[in-house]
Write a structure and sequence with these properties.
Elements: H1 2-25, H2 28-31, H3 42-57, H4 83-102, E1 112-115, E2 118-121, H5 122-148, H6 162-170
Antiparallel strand pairs: 1-2
Helix pairs in contact: 1-4, 1-5, 3-4
Length: 173
Amino acid sequence: MQLYLDSALQRFRSYYDMGTKTIERLDASQLHWQPQGEPNSIAMLVKHLRGNMLSRWTDFLTSDGEKRDRHRDEEFEEDQASKETILQRWHEGWDCLLKAVGSLTPDDLEKTVYIRAEAHSVLDAINRQMTHVPYHVGQMVYIGKMILGENWQSLSIPKGQSEAFNKEKFGNK
């Protein structure tokens, strides 16, 4: 089960890196841009993820994952935060999540925690977060790609570069 915890941390760190690189590539006005139809801006998504992570992972094993002082609806209100504030929120949420998950032991995985008064095994609570985070990080990356267009630098293998990537990784076999 330690293998699972190590894997979860590795996956979370990869989403952290993708989101960080996306935020760093944009200026404050771009971070607050919203596509038509009023979907969330990157700034709102960061505020929401921060609120979610702080609520879920503060006192993770001992208190409900939906803290009384969380105001989820406010996370989706525009506040024109600076890029520095957006990055601070991003790092604060992730710091809480990574420290909490990093402190878990294999014996913890079968313990019961509560999220909105619903019982979850610790393993399930991690999996729940593992589906929530990439959903929103993917939205952030997609918005960043929309904004930067052809100036976007791929966070993985660029289009049309799979063969070259594979050749580099696997050689000429």
